[in-house]
Description:
Radius of gyration: 33 Å
Number of helices: 27
Helix content: 55-70%
Largest sheet: none
Shape: extended
Oligomer: single chain
Amino acid sequence: MLRLICKRLLLVNSRASKYNHGFxxxxxxxxxxxxxxxxxxxxxxTLSYLQNSCGLSQNSALTVSKRFLIEDSExxxxxxxxxxxxxxxxxxxxxxxxxxxxxxxxxxxxxxRPNMELFESLGFSGDSLGKMLSKDPRMLGxxxxxxxxxxxxxxxxxxxxxxxxxKRPQLLFFNxxxxxxxxxxxxxxxxxxxxxxxxxxxxxxxxxxxxxENRIIPSIEVLKRVVGADEDVVKAVKGCYWxxxxxxxxxxEPNISMLKSHGVPExxxxxxxxLHPKTLLLRPQRITEILAEVVKLGFNPNTSLFVxxxxxxxxxxxxxxxxxxxxxxxxxxxxxxxxxxxxxxxMFMLTSEKKIKKMMNFYINKLKMEPSVICxxxxxxxxxxxxxxxxxxxVVQLLMSxxxxxxxxxxxxxxxxxxxxxxxxxxxxxVVLPDVVKAYEGKIEFQGLPVLLKS
Length: 455
């Protein structure tokens, strides 16, 4: 009987020991090096530990266990405990250890804990910390202080550091003074401020991996040839951070030459490029196709509508373009009417397919507009339905119902400037009809207009 009681006590103690660290571990995982060698084969123990403590699949654990052995479970346990203490989930741990299993052999107080604290000081925590480390687990076992201090010393905020590291964690492995300082110095010599550089490179850190001599400097030289002054080069890059990712000699210059050959004035090209630089970074073959379409539609190259038409076509695939044409056609517009509206207002095709359906449904089914009316006034599809169209329609509806407006040309009221609309319809009638303010604020549901458009 005494032997049976002792066995049960040992069983209870064994089970309790599994939860010593707040998570279930096989008791064999808590053995020290001497115990591992005494009770089990190190390779079998490593395989078992990787599966049960780190969450690796059997195949992954088998592959990993061929490359290294866990001979001291106490060190491995402390690594896992540190990860969990800093909010890493089992899924994060599985990815990190599966990619970098040797982290289980690293001394916690040497690099792991200091790096965890460094990341948290920058703003990483829990899931964001786990996602970043899953991208490149080497971050935990590398001395990163010098790299972090380099970027901070060059004006990068903690938030910008976090953004940059999340996108390209491997940048912290470079010798920052040797690799990155010449690039930062070059940007500043062109006219970029410390704030500009930090903002651009934290958003597009891939630029830092580009060759200064073979990519960055030649790209800036191309921009100088195109826009002239350094201040306009800065403006172009700030308008499209990833412009320096492209080979501008092969893409930008040929596209500009094509526009000039079609009669587009240089001043229009320059203004357009500074406002929307990425439009001219398409493959020259695609620009050629778009130019042919725009010319075919009869746009005048001496007007800004010509380049707006190119931009509208450039930002979407042919498939997406056709889907939008079909969306308009589903509400009664012919293909010719769609293209007629496009010629009048090229931005008309930049409206998302979802918004097209929402706006057309409201205009046709709520305001009872004819498709031809919308075709002749495509600008109304650029307005906000919730912030402009419905509130204004509600105001007009209320004023007509109360007899203050006899008949309404709703298009006239939709096109009014905000200041005009408030002065002529809201402030003018808010004393005699207080609900007009509620209607304008969207607090009265729109029911429909008794009279819509003058003939």
